[in-house]
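Supplementary Methods S3. Complex input for the nicotinamide-adenine-dinucleotide-bound model.
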Amino acid sequence: MLTVANPANGAPIAEVPTDDAASISRACRRSRAAQPNWAAEPLEHRLACLRRFREAVVRDSERLAALLTTEVGKPIRQARNELTGLLPRLDFFLEATAATLAPRTVHEADGMRERITHEPLGVVANISAWNYPYFVGANVFVPALLAGNCVLYKPSEYATLTGIEIGNLLHAAGVPQDVFQVIVGGGDAGAALLAQPIDGVFFTGSYATGARIAQAVGPRMIRMQLELGGKDPAYVCDDVDVAAAAASLADGAMYNTGQSCCSVERIYVHEAVHDAFVAAFVGEVKGFRVGDPADESTYIGPLTRAAQIEVLQAQVADAQARGARLLAGGRRLAAPGNWFEPTVFCDVDHDMALMRDESFGPIIGIQKVADDAEAVRLMNDSEYGLTAGVYTKDAARAERILARVGAGSVYWNCCDRVSPRLPWSGVKRSGIGLTLSTYGIEAFTRPKAWHLRAPWARRRAGRTAAASRSASCWPASRSVR
Ligand code: NAD
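Predicted complex, serialized as structure tokens:
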């Protein structure tokens, strides 16, 4: 049994039976049996199921948002934003899948035709994080299902009820029970899932777990994507509108209580505007309302995981011991539940854990830099590379800086942003593979290369006109229909 507790007060809200190795093995066998039929359905059928899923999300959004708030502690307005933000992602996949996966002839001459088709991988495991269960889940299960795969979806143990709801909505929308199955449990259930004969693993979570998964799955030569953590930097140049940059970055650092993979976790500020920026930033943070996540006016809620409080306390102690200046917060709140004050430090450096290790909470370090070169060097001085941003009025300067930063996504005058049209990926310890964009649709397929020589081609070699006259002799491919 898994006990689900409300992070805002620690009160248990549900007991959920968990899967074990035997039930996970049975689920995998059912997926294997169901997959060929699901892949044989016309793509239009699968699109219709996902369109009905979208309608259900719209219809039930208030109920789903309230559950998200109770289960993961996400402030209610931000929970609604997650459900609203899901819709353009769904729309992108619904609109782009047919064209992306259509068979393509890439060469044709002298009776020889070369084409590419996309075949589903088969049965894939989707092991997910809790911080944006709708976003990180849908980035995987929507294109995976549309491409004809069966999905074994293991939501985080901290978002189990939401994961079960996602399964219910998909089944009600027409996705067969065995095509999308929810595996309930923690790390043990995830490990047992990976031991099954699956064809791919799509993981979102921490570097530590991702590294364990890479070791376990690597020798099996199946598709593996790992979307992992970050320590995302932003650089504020000397020509900015200080108030606007401070407001944008305070939101980027503290939204979702700092628990976004692309939360801003390090800020570098040009010395010419450092003091003004720090004052404006602290003003913004002190204006954020901390409190009951069910309250409409709350901006900062509890941490989802109690264990993260110790990480934040250790980062605060280490930063203070090494001479950082605490400007706001710094303490656990004395209340039931997982509360930590929004915390701002300046006078920080890269000897401090605060500037090196992922914090995943409402805490930020601000470091003064002399010029763009120092900012770029510090932004790149990280084991991670998920996103990086720069704030400046000068487009050419922004481009010069961002071209030199090692990150999967780069931002000019914005941060903490994801677009369904752009690939979402990381470099270094932020992971391998990608989701979203047309690449994130192809990722759930195996491209098959077709070399097709017409029976008469040898005889008529070199005569292109004859080849095009006989086009009807080519076999049609029906991989993703
Ligand atoms: P986590 O690594 O603790 O858990 C992620 C998932 O892995 C959970 O479902 C968990 O049950 C499962 N798991 C744990 N041990 C396992 C094992 N040995 N084998 C298989 N599965 C196992 O991460 P989390 O706390 O859920 O999420 C927070 C992390 O996720 C942060 O580091 C954050 O940056 C990252 N994240 C990254 C992205 C991205 O797009 N790059 C998005 C969201 C979150």
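DSSP finds 15 helices and 22 strands in the chain. The longest strand covers residues 112-120.
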